[in-house]
Specification:
174 residues; alpha+beta; Nucleotidyltransferase, domain 5; four-stranded mixed sheet; 7 helices; elongated
């Protein structure tokens, strides 16, 4: 097989007049919708086509409107972190060690990107979140009577449990 044979050749989809009519009618009824929504409407009417096929047909008859992306929310920093131990992030990830599933739980300082504390558990629960935070405080030499770092976590059940929230309320951290 030559190098030219390996290249993907563009596929041109031929629509029946009925298919074209369904797509064009849906776009006419809902001009504000994009090709993906039009494909969904067509699919509800029994016409199963890909998003790209619907897009190509609408483009060929000049029924694709301008599209402006929304600005990225990540352009501006959500937090103002100006020194270390002000805000930490915690997350867990799955590991496979000797065919056994484990969870790596790690805390990272948002300012220095330094791994403050980490440990491996068979599963993660509220006590592990508490333990890793206290370990991070000890590793950084932070006592309870000073301003404690905020901990940013996802919405997993160990992070949002009543036990975890009570622990951070007692500690005086967010």
């Amino acid at each position: 097989m030559s190098k030219d044979d390996k290249k993907a050749k563009p596929r041109i989809t031929e629509f029946t007049p009925e298919e074209k009519q369904i797509i064009e009618k849906a776009k006419g009824e809902y001009p504000h919708l994009r090709h993906r929504q039009i494909q969904g409407i067509s699919q509800n009417k029994g016409l199963y086509l890909s998003y790209s096929s619907v897009y190509q047909h609408l483009k060929s008859i000049d029924m694709i409107g301008p599209y402006e992306r929304r600005p990225s929310p990540l352009r501006e920093s959500r937090y103002n972190v100006w020194h270390r131990n002000l805000m930490w992030g915690c997350d867990g990830t799955k590991l496979l060690i000797s065919h056994i599933r484990w969870r790596l739980l790690i805390i990272i300082d948002f300012f220095s990107q330094y791994a403050i504390a980490y440990d491996i558990y068979p599963s993660i629960n509220a006590s592990h979140i508490k333990h890793i935070y206290i370990t991070g405080l000890k590793n950084q030499g932070i006592r309870k009577n000073v301003v404690l770092p905020d901990l940013r976590v996802d919405r997993g059940s160990p992070d949002t449990s009543l036990i975890t929230r009570e622990f951070f309320d007692i500690m005086g951290a967010d």
